[in-house]
């Protein structure tokens, strides 16, 4: 293990060096303009936009209850580690199981989802599910189109408090004379969008599908907002199809070392001399080495999903309690690193059990944890996207930086090397920004767009 430890840093530097080398040798990037991910041979899309309501068969709910009743949580958390350091604490898992079995009411959350107008339309052989929410008629002088993109392990339910603030800011005490018409699609293989049936459905393919969706809805130019995969998808859309994008708002802005020469120089320099960072909050503890260590300690899931998603996905798709432990654990550490020290993972500090279980339910009832995990594999296989992510984005960009973001709290000195950052704001929030801190995030979107 010591051997491994000492190999880690040189390996990282070597990977960074190779990455950098390829940055210095840019090639022409040929972005594929179409693809087909439906079953069988290519068929023409049915472009009709159909209204959609969630209505899960009672049979699926009954089967879930039975599985919960029969679930086996026979392991015990270690006597001297009654926390989340080894993963989801079994004592808390037992409590969550009981809550799920006896108190959680899916129909209540189905009704909340159905308060949003939802639709389905076919693109590249896949039925795409999306929410399309307009501001109250006549209340705002201007209405601007905004696409918001979710990530893993999330879905559009993360936005249930965020969307109403974007479509009717005044109602929530945000002063603005404009509001957004919001389109929130489910990534294919997540929520109620079809699962891709063929390989290659990457973040770039997703960006292309989301762009086609906006064009189909009549929006030739629009705003983008995203975190997690949503941030990768929207920033790829802005790079590949800049003519359609007015501005980009990100609550996660990950820049890998080596992506840009100057960014890499800053990355290393700020580790040695943190005082060069303009943010007093980051200069206290920002360090590339710390970031690399966190990456190593907390992203085992990513390695599995990027290599053999179908294997681990098999058991997650068969056991609701396994699925819940796997997904909800992320809502602990990714909301605050310190929550790992708590017996309940600090899960209810920012979210209710109902909220967390609804996220899990959407994976369970659709049986799509495997397809959501395959998205990682496709990311690492997509060389076009990799090349695009090294391109500078001239479109005005905002970074709402979560100070509790586990991995990415990219200082503006670094992100400026790859994005035209016109708005930077630090918010005391973690990774699931729209879910945890909808109001500060919405405020930051309005400030950014207002200043353009
Ligand atoms: C950044 O965006 C602003 C606002 O649109 C624009 O005026 C400026 O030229 C852009 N800067 C770069 C470097 O692209
Ligand atoms: C969100 C947050 O914690 N911001 C802090 C960043 O640092 C300044 C100066 O130290 C504080 O005033 C902010 O509260």
TrEMBL record:
Gene Ontology annotations of biological process type: epoxide metabolic process
Keyword annotations of the record: Aromatic hydrocarbons catabolism, Endoplasmic reticulum, Hydrolase, Membrane, Signal
Residue positions of the active site: 228, 376, 431
Presence of the UniProt keyword Disulfide bond in the record: no
Signal sequence residues: 1-23
Documented EC number(s): 3.3.2.9
Membrane topology reported for the UniProt record: Single-pass membrane protein
Keyword hit for Membrane: yes
One Gene Ontology cellular component: endoplasmic reticulum membrane
Predominant place of localization: endoplasmic reticulum
Record domain Epoxide hydrolase N-terminal: where: 49-159
Catalytic activity: cis-stilbene oxide + H2O = (1R,2R)-hydrobenzoin; 1-(4-methoxyphenyl)-N-methyl-N-[(3-methyloxetan-3-yl)methyl]methanamine + H2O = 2-{[(4-methoxybenzyl)(methyl)amino]methyl}-2-methylpropane-1,3-diol
GO MF annotations, alphabetized: cis-stilbene-oxide hydrolase activity
Intracellular or extracellular location(s): Endoplasmic reticulum membrane; Microsome membrane
Stated family: Belongs to the peptidase S33 family.
Name of the protein in question: Epoxide hydrolase
Organism: Caenorhabditis angaria
High-level lineage: Eukaryota, Metazoa, Ecdysozoa, Nematoda, Chromadorea
């Amino acid at each position: 293990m010591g051997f491994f430890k000492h190999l880690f840093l040189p390996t990282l530097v070597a990977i960074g060096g190779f990455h950098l080398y390829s940055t210095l040798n840019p090639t022409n990037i040929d972005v594929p303009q179409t693809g087909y991910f439906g079953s069988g041979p290519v068929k023409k899309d049915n472009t009709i936009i159909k209204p959609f309501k969630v209505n899960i068969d009672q049979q699926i709910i009954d089967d879930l209850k039975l599985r919960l009743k029969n679930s086996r949580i026979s392991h015990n958390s270690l006597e001297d580690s009654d926390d989340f350091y080894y993963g989801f604490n079994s004592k808390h898992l037992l409590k969550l199981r009981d809550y799920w079995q006896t108190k959680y009411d899916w129909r209540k959350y189905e009704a909340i989802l159905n308060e949003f107008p939802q639709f389905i339309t076919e693109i590249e052989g896949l039925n795409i599910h999306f929410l399309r929410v307009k501001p109250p008629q006549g209340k705002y002088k201007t209405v601007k189109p905004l696409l918001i993109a979710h990530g893993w392990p999330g879905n559009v339910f993360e936005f249930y408090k965020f969307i109403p603030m974007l479509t009717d800011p005044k109602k929530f005490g945000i002063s603005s004379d404009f509001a957004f018409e919001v389109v929130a699609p489910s990534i294919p293989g997540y929520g109620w969008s079809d699962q891709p049936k063929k390989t290659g459905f990457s973040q770039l393919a997703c960006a292309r599908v989301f762009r086609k969706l906006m064009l189909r809805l009549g929006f030739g130019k629009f705003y983008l907002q995203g975190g997690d995969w949503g941030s990768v998808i929207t920033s790829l859309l802005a790079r590949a199809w800049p003519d359609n994008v007015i501005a980009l708002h990100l609550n996660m802005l990950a820049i890998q070392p080596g992506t840009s020469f100057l960014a890499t120089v800053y990355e290393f320099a700020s580790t040695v001399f943190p005082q060069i960072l303009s943010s007093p909050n980051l200069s206290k503890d920002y360090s590339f080495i710390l970031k690399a260590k966190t990456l190593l300690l907390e992203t085992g899931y990513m390695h599995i999903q990027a290599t053999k998603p179908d294997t681990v996905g098999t058991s997650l798709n068969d056991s609701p309690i396994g699925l819940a432990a796997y997904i909800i654990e992320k809502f602990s550490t990714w909301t605050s690193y310190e929550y790992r020290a708590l017996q309940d993972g600090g899960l209810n500090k920012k979210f209710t059990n109902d909220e967390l279980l609804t996220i899990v339910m959407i994976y369970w009832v659709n049986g799509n944890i495997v397809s959501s995990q395959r998205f990682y594999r496709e990311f690492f296989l997509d060389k076009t996207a990799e090349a695009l992510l090294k391109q500078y984005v001239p479109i005005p960009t905002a970074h709402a930086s979560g100070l509790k973001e586990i991995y990415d709290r990219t200082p503006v000195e670094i992100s400026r090397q790859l994005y035209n950052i016109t708005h930077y704001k630090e918010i005391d929030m973690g990774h699931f920004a729209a879910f945890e801190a909808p109001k500060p995030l919405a405020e930051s979107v309005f400030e950014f767009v207002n200043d353009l």
